[in-house]
Amino acid sequence: MLRLFYVIFISLPFVLYYIHKAHYITKHREKYSEEQCYRIARRCIRIMMINGRIRTEAYGTELLPEEGGYVMYSNHQGKYDTLGIMISHSKPCTIVMDATRSKMPIADPFINLVNGSRLDKTDMKKQVNTIMKIAEEVKNGRRYIVFPEGGYDHNRNDLQEFMPGAFKCATKYGAPIVPVAIIDSYKVFGINSLRKVKTQVHFLKPILFEEYQHMNTQEIAQMVKERIAAVISRQLKARNAG
């Protein structure tokens, strides 16, 4: 958490400016396109990365679908995960986040800025409604980031079970599923150090409807988990061998 507090402290004028900007945009959404909001969000991320001595390397961006909506399913390691994916993803995308965590001081205006969705884990009916809302938005061309593991405490570069229900956001209307493997993202805010840190974001080959149409969500979850795990394992072995 040391880096997080440090970045907020030295970036305080920018933080206050962008929080105010996000609030203004939320109240005047009709004046701003999704592209404009996303550019502002990525500008915030870049400032944080520069001040926090963070570098993220992106791989597989050429594999991302050119048109239409899709859902990116990533492993989860910490507070930097969404930011690392967004800075690596040039086209506008957004996030579904736990409703309780989304109300934190900086997370709240950021979620509003990118017009994300909040998932209330205490109310099953609201969860279903949120998933159906996300599926409809994806059908209409939006791109979402979903973390099917749910929490991230102590995950590091290890994977937890992927929740099958999370995949209904994509399967409802047969949207492409893009597995995303993140590596060392936990180091950004999970280690008490201000040393330079490097993370990786790997966009994997999209899984199209034709490939998963005869699978249930449990099978899809396992398939996505295995593909992400294979990339992480391969990268860590290559690093250790070097």
Description of the structure:
The structure is a single chain. The chain has 242 residues and is of the alpha/beta class. The chain is 47% helix and 15% strand.
Spell out the blueprint of helices and strands.
Layout: H1 2-10, H2 12-27, H3 34-52, E1 54-59, E2 70-74, H4 81-88, E3 94-98, H5 107-113, E4 117-119, H6 124-139, E5 143-146, H7 168-171, E6 177-183, H8 186-190, E7 197-203, H9 209-212, H10 217-241
Parallel strand pairs: 1-7, 2-5, 2-6, 3-4, 3-5
Antiparallel strand pairs: 6-7
Number of helices: 10
Biggest sheet details: 7 strands, mixed
Q: How far apart lie the N and C ends?
A: 29 Å
**What coarse outline follows from CA principal-axis ratios?**
globular
Please give the share of residues in helix: 40-55%
Beta fraction of the residues? 15-25%
Q: What is the number of beta strands? A: 7
Largest sheet, order of strands side by side?
1-7-6-2-5-3-4
Written as H for each helix and E for each strand, in order along the chain, the element string is: HHHEEHEHEHEHEHEHH
Which parts are unreliable, with pLDDT below 50 for 5 consecutive residues or more?
A: none
Query: Overall pLDDT, averaged?
Result: 94
Structural class designation: alpha/beta
- Over all CA atoms, what is the radius of gyration? 17 Å
